[in-house]
Amino acid sequence: MVPSKPTDAQRPAHPEPADDPAFTIDPRDRDRVPAALRAQLVATQRAAAGALPAATGVRLQEI
Q1: How many Cα neighbours within 13 Å face the side chain of 45?
Q2: Cβ proximity of 17 and 61 under 8 Å
Q3: Torsion angle, CA of 14/25/53/20, rounded to 10 degrees?
Q4: How many Å apart are CA 55 and CA 58, to the nearest integer?
Q5: Could you tell me if residue 63 is inside a domain?
Q6: How many domains does the chain have?
Q7: Whole domain around residue 50: which residue ranges?
Q8: pLDDT at residue 50 tops 90
Q9: CA 53/CA 47 separation, integer angstroms
């Protein structure tokens, strides 16, 4: 995933997450999206040594 933000076109339709972190899928992984959308998604943060300091559920918009 690549850090991103809601587009100007998306903000009026979905103002509540406008300040939340947003990400886009790396084009090399786009063929994996349909399978991922059929499962529960979790975003994780990893430390350099591999520790897992944070995880959160993923909220999908306008798919």
Answers
A1: 7
A2: yes
A3: -20
A4: 10
A5: no
A6: 1
A7: 2-57
A8: no
A9: 7
